[in-house]
Amino acid sequence: MRTVVRLSSFMAMTVVISVVAAGEKMPSQEEMWRIIQQQQQEIEALKARLEARSEGGSQAKTEAEVKEVKRQTSILAEEMEKVRTLLVIPEEPKYKSVYGLGPAASKVYQVGKGLSIGGYGEGRYQIFTDDQNGKQDNADFVRLVLYTGYKFNDWILFNSEIEFEHASTGKNGEVSVEFAALDFFLDPKINFRAGMVLLPVGFLNTIHEPPFYFGNNRPEVEQRIIPSTWREFGAGLFGEIYPGLTYTTYVVNGIRASDFESSGIRGGRQGGSKAKAENLAWVGRLDYAVPQLTGLTVGAAAYLGNSAQDEIGSAGVFTQLYEGHVQWKYRGLEFRALGAWSHIDDAGKVSSAVGETVGEQQFGWYTELGYNILPWLLPESTQYLAPFFRYEQWDTIAKAPKGFSDDPRFARHLWQLGLHYKPIPNVVIKADYRNIDAKRGDVADEFNLGLGFIF
Question: In the predicted model, what is the mean pLDDT of residues 65-71?
Answer without folding.
Answer: 65
